[in-house]
Write a structure and sequence with these properties.
It is a single chain. It is built from one helix and four strands. It is mainly beta. Strand 2 and strand 3 form a beta hairpin. The longest helix is centred in the N-terminal third of the chain and has 4 residues. It is globular and about 40 Å long.
Length: 67
């Protein structure tokens, strides 16, 4: 199933999992790139790991978004 829209506010606080299904962190923010035409494009997620460390995950590395 493919979604054409994702509401950013619903992603914040969601868990982030590795390929084995283990939770590695949670979404802190979504980074967007503004374009001259059309809607902004998501470039990646800011993910908090271990309660302190924040890392950028490029959108190309995201395999799925589910609730």
């Amino acid at each position: 199933m493919s979604a054409s829209r994702v509401f950013v506010a619903r992603l914040v606080g969601c868990g982030v999992f590795d390929p084995a299904g283990d939770k590695v962190g949670k979404v802190i923010d979504v980074l967007l790139a503004y374009r001259n035409t059309g809607s902004p494009k998501a470039t990646g997620l800011l993910v908090e790991i271990s309660g302190r460390r924040r890392v950028f995950v490029p959108i190309a590395r995201i395999t799925s978004i589910a609730n």
